[in-house]
Design brief:
Protein name: Impact RWD domain protein
Distance between the termini: 22 Å
Number of domains: 2
CATH superfamily of the largest domain: Impact, N-terminal domain
Organism: Seriola dumerili (Greater amberjack)
GO cellular component, one term: cytoplasm
CATH topology of the largest domain: Ribosomal Protein S5, domain 2
Largest sheet: 6 strands, antiparallel
Radius of gyration: 20 Å
Strand content: 15-25%
Keywords: Cytoplasm, Repressor, Stress response, Translation regulation
Subcellular location: Cytoplasm
Length: 323
């Protein structure tokens, strides 16, 4: 962490603070702080604020030497975005950075992605299924979209076993995690339907969930999340699954609101519940070691890029997170 505290980076840190404050003011609840100390943020972007048809989540890590010498490290989460379209969008973001090297770039990136979503939504009248109901997205496999929407199981898939974790209670609010192994979007829907058969779970104020499915043939992940009214909670939960590098699993966290506002503590409880049940079910041994390792790698890459820039004067390479 010494690189973060280096006096040479004080100007960059101040620029980051001012940029984050401005983005938070502009985008409100769409802007989410994942880990302020590690400079990890995300924003949910849609083609239309009133009637969103396409959404994407831009996750960002700000290196210590951004914006003076390094670009943000980013990942775009959108299960429908793949192949040439993903490459086209990535290239446009990189071109923007090159045009504005040394300047704060996040606002331009967000609006470029929004512009891309608007164009995509306007050109999607060809019948291509981009998104389906209940927040489930189809990315890696050619499933029958109608079957997925209606939840009819024509393929004889079995309901995965569902595990229920220990609840956490704080100021009369209770959080309880549920976990199931999943390998198809249809199983995700089956798990949700089964959970909602439980009257207690169905009566929860929020049922936040996230899942990650690894597509062997595409060497990519199908992943999605749902806030269920708890703004930004689904994105934070999905980010936890990515940081822990788990796959073929779904985690649901039920929250029963107790009448007392918990502030940011509610996100801590949601992620703690999820991490605990992932550890209990053997999906990860420890989140702490993996997180520290990830941060070490990111900081090392930042130092390499800065040294490269000082030696060669060339523009630093872009790093896209592939969890």
């Amino acid at each position: 962490m010494a690189d973060i505290l280096n006096p040479e980076n004080e100007g960059d840190l101040q620029s980051q603070i001012e940029e984050v404050e401005a983005l938070s003011s502009i985008y409100g609840d769409e802007w989410c702080v994942i880990d302020e100390a590690s400079r990890i943020f995300c924003i949910k972007i849609s083609n239309d604020l009133d009637e969103p048809k396409l959404t994407a989540c831009l996750q960002i890590i700000l290196p210590p030497d951004y914006p003076s010498a390094a670009p943000p490290i980013y990942q775009i989460n959108a299960a429908w975005l793949r192949g040439p379209e993903r490459a086209k969008l990535a290239n446009s973001l990189e071109d923007l950075y090159v045009e504005h090297v040394g300047e704060s770039i996040l606002y331009l990136w967000v609006e470029k992605i929004r512009e891309f979503l608007v164009e995509k939504s306007q050109s999607s009248e060809t019948g291509e299924v981009i998104e389906v109901t209940s927040g489930l997205t189809l990315a890696c496999q050619s499933y029958d979209g109608g079957s997925l929407v209606t939840g009819i199981n024509h393929h004889g898939e079995e309901l995965p076993p569902i595990k229920h974790g220990n609840p956490i209670t704080d100021r009369r609010s209770t959080f309880q995690p549920h976990l199931a192994p999943v390998v198809t979007p249809r199983q995700v829907k089956m798990v949700l339907e089964k959970l909602y058969e439980n009257k207690k779970i169905a009566s929860a104020t929020h049922n936040i969930y996230a899942y990650r499915i690894y597509c062997e043939d595409k060497h990519s992940f199908l992943q999605d999340c749902e806030d269920d009214g708890e703004t930004a909670a689904g994105g934070r939960l999905l980010h936890l699954l990515q940081i822990l590098d788990v796959r073929n699993v779904m985690v649901v966290v039920s929250r029963w609101y107790g009448g007392i506002l918990l502030g940011p503590d509610r996100f801590k409880h949601i992620n703690n519940c999820a991490r605990n049940i992932l550890v209990e079910e053997g999906y990860t041994a420890s989140s702490v070691r993996h997180t520290l390792g990830l941060l070490y790698i990111l900081l090392s890459k930042s130092q390499v890029r800065r040294n490269h820039l000082m030696k060669t004067g060339s523009c630093p390479e872009f790093v896209t997170l592939l969890f």
